[in-house]
Write a structure and sequence with these properties.
This protein is α/β, with parallel strands linked by helices. Helix 2 crosses helix 6 and helix 3 crosses helix 14. The chain has one domain. Strand 5, helix 7 and strand 6 form a beta-alpha-beta unit.
């Protein structure tokens, strides 16, 4: 990650499970990320942290190390609960990729070349067409679907570089997409790289979004569960309590660390 991103994380972030997560509002996030996309050098990789990703983070050191090199944005009610527990307040905005990325592309008025990698071939093509309708001043390029073996990664990275895109959207699912970007994507591939999860499925219309009122109430997870109960039951009704357990354990650990630091600060006077 380039020095500008490092400065942003340092100046406006909260530690969630020891990972810096930006606490920018919508307006500041748009202006900051748009400026990063215009940088003539370096590269910024953006990932999102939600409750499911946080559970992966706790048990997967490689995934954590990748995110530590990324600019991480807060996604969903889970990280808000973590923030409330650890800092006494929610994040200023729910910067989930499904809403943030399309809105960011609208915010960016300077035309960009935007590469798409991931999802199924037909979904990728549909997503490219929908993106082009959404923000026609940008050029969208469907580079490759997400169904390839690891030994083809270097070839696909070279293909990405040949398109000379400004922004790269990668949709392979967590943690594969974050690890893949961290291993193979460099500044010559794109100045701004965003791991977008299931965004192409939503943009292509293959997965319906919750009504605006439900999304505003941070309850889209429940709407999605009702659409796909068998697939998402484990994530929400097992993963959810596991996440809350991690939040409680981390909060206790932090409290004990604070007590220990206070004790040693008193030193011989106690």
């Amino acid at each position: 990650m380039n020095i500008v991103s490092n400065m942003a994380v340092f100046s406006s972030q909260r530690q969630v499970f020891g990972l810096p997560v930006c606490d920018l509002g919508w307006s500041d996030a748009f202006s900051f990320v748009s400026a990063l996309a215009d940088m003539p050098i370096g590269q910024t990789v953006i990932s999102f942290l939600n409750a499911h990703n946080a559970n992966v983070l706790v048990r997967d050191p490689e995934y954590r190390e990748a995110l530590e090199r990324h600019l991480v944005l807060p996604d969903g009610i889970g990280v808000d609960i973590a923030s409330l527990t650890m800092f006494g307040k929610f994040f200023p905005a729910n910067l989930n990729g499904t809403d943030f990325v399309p809105a960011l592309l609208t915010y960016m008025t300077t035309p960009k070349r935007i590469g798409l990698v991931g999802s199924r071939p037909e979904t990728l093509a549909n997503a490219r067409d929908q993106f082009a309708r959404h923000a026609p001043w940008h050029e969208f390029i469907a580079i490759h679907d997400g169904y390839f073996s690891e030994d083809r990664s270097a070839d696909i990275a070279r293909e990405i570089a040949s398109h000379k895109v400004d922004i790269l959207l990668v949709a392979m699912g967590t943690p594969r997409q974050e690890k893949w970007v961290d291993r193979y994507i460099r500044p010559e591939h794109a100045r701004l790289v965003i791991s977008v999860g299931a965004l192409f499925d939503f943009i292509a219309g293959e997965v319906p979004r919750a009504p605006e009122l439900i999304r505003h109430a941070r309850m889209e997870w429940l709407y999605r569960f009702l659409q796909e109960p068998r697939r998402l039951a484990g994530r929400y009704f097992i993963g959810g309590p596991v996440f809350l357990g991690h939040v409680a354990a981390y909060a206790v650990s932090q409290r004990l660390s604070d007590i220990k630091r206070a004790f040693w600060k008193l030193g011989p006077s106690v």
